[in-house]
Structures are given as C-alpha cells and as structure tokens.
Amino acid sequence: MKPKTQKPQGKPNKKPTHSKAKATQWQKPNFKQKHKAKPKTDKPNKPEIRQMIRQQKASKAEAERQQVRAEKEARIKAYKKQRLEKTKAISKRTQRGQPLMKDRMQLLLKQIEEMKQR
Fold it and tell me: Basic residues composition bias: which ranges (predicted)?
C-alpha cells in the first residue's frame, strides 16, 4: 500500500495570473472586438432621414412665406401708388384756392368704369 499524500488545506498561496494573451479558466475568451469600425455606407440612417425631411419641410415653408410676403408687398405698393394718384388729383387747386373739378370728375369717371368692369 502506498502512503497517502496530504492535500493542502485552505487557499493555495499562488494566485492565478490573468493575461490577455491567454484565456484561463476564470477568464472568458474575447471573441468580439469592441468599438469595431463599421464600413460606411451611402444609405442614411433614421435620424439623418428625419433631419433631411425636416429640412425639406422647412425650406418649402420658407419658400411659401417668401411668396406670400412678395405678393403682399406688391399689393401694398399698388395700393400706395393708387392712393398717391388719388390724393394728387383731389389736392389740386386753382390760383384762388378753389378745388379743380376737372381732375375730380376724371377720378370719379375712372371709379365708375372699374365698377362696370367687375
């Protein structure tokens, strides 16, 4: 019969070494690489698509606003021109300060013609 060897009691004095090059029983092997660079594709991702759609809508709304503003300015300019013409015709006076009826009558005639056309 062989003599039994004594088993060491408690924890062993040596601690296992953890090296990155070698996988041990306490360390799982690292198969996946973190922060792996993905190949860049031409296809935009969802946030980029949403941003593009927002920009398109904003540019379309801005174009509409510009058009409305231009139309409004044109109407105002035409109205101011018409009003200036009317005030010039009404404010004309003779040498003695009496209003000129000739220009007033032409203005009234113009108004009547416009009403008939409508």
Answer: 12-21
Contact indicator for 100, 92 with CB cutoff of 8 Å: yes
Enclosing H/E stretch for 14: none
The count of domains in the chain is 1
Q: Has residue 19 been placed in a domain?
A: no
The number of CA neighbours under 13 Å toward the Cβ of 39 is 2
15-40 pLDDT, tens digit each: 655 555 555 567 776 666 666 666 66
Rounded to whole angstroms, the Cα distance separating 97 from 94 reads 5
In 1-118, at which residue ranges do the beta strands (DSSP E only) sit?
Answer: none
Phi first, then psi: give them for residue 93, nearest 5 degrees.
Answer: -135, 160
What was the pLDDT predicted at 3?
A: 73
Segments forming the whole domain that contains residue 90: 47-117
- Structural domain contains residue 28: no
Domain membership of residue 6 (yes or no) is no
Q: Are 83 and 104 in contact (CB under 8 A)?
A: no
